[in-house]
Each structure stands twice: as structure tokens, then as C-alpha cells.
Design brief:
The protein is mainly α. The chain has one domain (about 5-130). Helices cover about 70% and strands about 0% of the residues. It has helices at about 10-30, 40-55, 65-70, 75-110, 115-120, 125-130. The longest helix is centred in the last third of the chain and has 35 residues, at about 75-110. The radius of gyration is 21 Å and the shape is elongated. The model has no long low-confidence stretch (mean pLDDT about 95).
Length: about 140
């Protein structure tokens, strides 16, 4: 039988909040890659696509990542910029949902006055978000 002493509540809360962070990370990985540095490349492609959308006369040298990807897939820079921006917009919507749930659960755990309430607050249902993840 496990007993939770009131003095252990801060430790339990910290553990539960770390679990919430880990589970949010696992859900994020359904949508993104965790290859080192890849997030920086995605950010750069987005920046290039936004710059290109604002000024379609930019030379290819000013959008090297986007230009290389467009060439690799036989697309125009216009089409690739649109695709990158659509993907970025979709990711922003999904990541905001994940972050809202993550922060809400952590705040609920922090506000809990007992181990039982803390454990209940730490349960996050990610199923609806996971259901829309790409299936590659």
C-alpha cells in the first residue's frame, strides 16, 4: 500500500509536471522530427517563404533552403513557399493546442491540494490531437 504524506506533495507535483512535459513532447513528435537542428532549418524555410511571399522578386540566393527544396521536388518557388507557409500555419494551430493543454495541466497540478487531486489533474487526454497526426 502506498501512502502519500502531505510533505511529499511538492515532490509529487514536480514529478507529475515533468511527466506532463514528457507526454506533450511525445505528442509533438507525432508532427515534427527530432533530428538535431531540424527545427532551425524549418524556421529558416518559414522565414524564407515569408520573405519570398512579401517580395516574389527575391533572387534564389536569398532563399537557399526553399529554393533547394523546390528544385528537389520539381516545384516552383511560389508553390514551395505556399506549401511551407501552409505547413507552418497547421503546425502553429497544433502546437498551440498542445501547449494550452500542457500549461493548463501543469497549473492544475500546481494548484492541487492533495496527491489524489494532483494525480487527477496530471491526466491529459491527447487522443484528439494524436488522431490528426500524419501517418507517414
Amino acid at each position: 500500500m502506498r501512502f502519500d504524506l502531505r510533505d511529499d506533495l511538492p515532490t509529487l507535483k514536480a514529478e507529475l509536471q515533468a511527466d506532463i512535459d514528457r507526454s506533450a513532447g511525445e505528442v509533438r513528435l507525432l508532427f515534427i522530427t527530432d533530428a538535431p537542428g531540424q527545427d532551425m532549418i524549418y524556421q529558416e524555410k518559414r522565414r524564407e517563404a515569408e520573405a519570398f511571399q512579401a517580395n516574389p522578386d527575391l533572387p534564389p540566393e536569398q532563399t537557399p533552403h526553399m529554393t533547394a527544396e523546390a528544385a528537389a521536388f520539381g516545384m516552383t518557388r511560389v508553390a514551395k513557399a505556399s506549401e511551407i507557409l501552409a505547413q507552418a500555419s497547421a503546425w502553429t494551430a497544433v502546437s498551440a493546442m498542445i501547449e494550452t493543454r500542457r500549461l493548463s495541466a501543469k497549473a492544475s497540478v500546481q494548484a492541487a491540494t492533495s496527491p489524489f487531486v494532483a494525480r487527477g489533474a496530471a491526466v491529459v487526454d491527447w487522443s484528439d490531437i494524436a488522431a490528426v497526426a500524419p501517418s507517414d
